[in-house]
Design goal:
The protein is mostly helical. It is built from 25 helices and five strands. It has helices spanning 13-28, 42-57, 65-73, 102-110, 132-144, 165-179, 185-201, 203-208, 215-225, 232-246, 249-257, 261-268, 274-287, 291-299, 303-312, 315-328, 332-340, 343-352, 357-367, 371-379, 382-392, 396-410, 417-427, 429-436, 439-452; strands spanning 35-37, 40-41, 91-93, 99-101, 129-130. The strands form two sheets. Strands 4-3-5 form a three-stranded antiparallel β-sheet. It has a two-stranded antiparallel sheet with strand order 1-2. Strand 1 and strand 2 (40-41) form a beta hairpin.
Length: 462
């Protein structure tokens, strides 16, 4: 007879151990009929487990609440959810084949996770399939121990993005408040702030923007509708939400093709607050990950306001601006436009002041394939600046970018050879780099040395 809070010694322990081994094999198996353990295939394991459960049924007992709780705590570990460590009330299978309690795995997915908690594999989808076999085993085990079968908690089902219907309704409600002319300014500001927070913390909300062609226009309504300016904080929240949603790869093409997105971003680059301007630059950088978007942004006039913001030199925006300019200039057409818009002089000024040297040298090296850019660099004293940087910097990449630009200058403007010879004579800068630089830097440095030290052919007349 059971004592309060404990069980009598159980004569069916061997059967239970066998059941545990079978359940482990069944739960962890990902095949349908291959041999998975004990010399059995999948079907045989299931049949054997059912027989053991039938045998255990004869040992059904009843007890107090404390006994029942102790029983749940001592259930086979295979019946416990790997996340909550408690007996599963509604076991479901995810795409990796692992089984979890529905409430626990839904909470995991709703938090924005897209990996299996146990294996860390990326989920191919987030469909949850009921595991009827494990559910039946848990039911049988509970019946055998005189316990009430735990029922599933009332939960909301999540979709493929990990959002419940309540989440989606909330999202739609926020967008409606932004787009309705009847919404108060307080409602609009609160909705914008909430959307900014949701798209920052939960990637699933970023994905939802891509499901409707009206979502982004609704988001931007307060900006496009404003005739006498817009509240700075509201403006910042809306642009930052646009940045957050643009991080999602599926949204990049949609966003760039949505009317008003590029004009809104270019206007935001000249906004009142530097936070809004920096986030607009970061959005252009993110969107320009697609080559087709690079061309669209360039043709829309995106480089000039970025270069102007770079020239202003706000520390909060500089890195995002430089990243956007670099990305855009990967496309040949945008290099030409950047040079026309004054990029060379602005970048050289910043490099001379030793501001954001790593990023700006990379842009300058990219622009050095443009003949007009080379001519401007020569006129603006780039040679002495670059030679001094080679001696100063400890960055191998910076040295490589400097010598790559000098190489382009050397092969396009013979008037700079004398300056390079003098540098080599005094400091051996080029020879040192020709021996100690990266493989590319060595090639460029030795190419310059070969060029500037080549004897000049003179034609003599008789």
């Amino acid at each position: 007879m059971a004592k309060s809070g404990s069980f009598d010694p159980d004569p069916t322990n061997n059967l239970k151990k066998e059941l545990r081994r079978l359940v482990t094999a069944i739960v962890e198996d990902s095949s349908s009929d291959e041999e998975i353990g004990f010399g059995f295939g999948f079907i045989e394991c299931v049949d054997e487990a059912v027989k053991i459960l039938q045998d255990l049924k004869e040992g059904r007992t009843h007890g107090s609440y404390s006994v029942m709780k102790s029983s749940f705590d001592s259930c086979p570990k295979e019946f416990n959810c790997p996340i909550s460590k408690r007996i599963m009330m509604d076991p479901v299978i995810i795409s990796t084949g692992k089984t979890y309690d529905r409430a626990s795995i839904q909470k995991w997915l709703t938090a924005g996770n897209r990996t299996c908690p146990e294996t860390q594999q990326v989920l191919s989808h987030t469909v949850l399939t009921p595991n009827h076999l494990v559910r039946d085993m848990i039911t049988q085990w509970c019946n055998n121990h005189g316990l009430s079968v735990p029922g599933p908690s009332p939960v909301q089902y999540v979709d493929e993005n990990g959002l419940t219907e309540a989440d989606r309704n909330h999202f739609r409600s926020l967008l409606r408040k932004l787009s309705l002319s009847s919404s108060s300014i307080t409602e609009v500001k609160e909705s914008a702030s909430t959307l900014r927070s949701l798209t920052k913390k939960n990637p699933s909300f970023r994905a939802v923007f891509g499901e409707s062609s009206t979502a982004i226009p609704e988001l931007l309504t307060p900006i496009t509708r404003a005739t006498n300016g817009i509240d700075p904080n509201l403006h910042e929240d809306l642009i930052t939400t646009l940045l957050n949603l643009s991080i999602h790869d599926d949204n990049k093409k949609l966003a760039i093709e949505t009317p008003n997105v590029i004009p809104v971003l270019l206007d935001a680059l000249r906004s009142v607050t530097i936070e809004t301007r920096a986030n607009a630059a970061a959005t252009l950088f993110t969107l320009s990950a697609l080559d087709s978007n690079k061309l669209v942004i360039g043709k829309a006039g995106g480089l000039k306001p970025l270069i102007e913001l770079l020239e202003e030199g706000h520390s909060l925006a500089m890195k995002d601006v430089a990243s956007a300019i670099f990305n855009l200039c990967i496309v040949h057409e945008n290099k030409t436009q950047a040079v026309r818009d004054g990029a060379v002089s602005v970048i050289l000024d910043k490099v001379n002041d030793r501001v954001l040297v790593d990023e700006l040298l990379a842009i300058l090296a990219m622009l050095s394939s443009n003949q007009t850019a080379i001519e401007e660099m020569c006129d603006l004293g780039a040679v002495s600046c670059l030679l001094s940087l080679i001696k100063e910097t400890t960055s191998a990449q910076n040295k490589e970018n400097c010598i790559a630009i000098l190489y382009a200058i050397c092969f396009n403007d013979r008037t700079k050879w004398r300056e390079m010879r003098e540098e080599e004579s005094l400091y051996g800068t080029l020879s040192w780099l020709g021996q100690n630089g990266t493989s590319r830097a060595r090639r460029k440095a030795n190419g310059i040395l070969d060029r500037i030290n080549r004897p000049v052919n003179r034609t003599h007349t008789a």
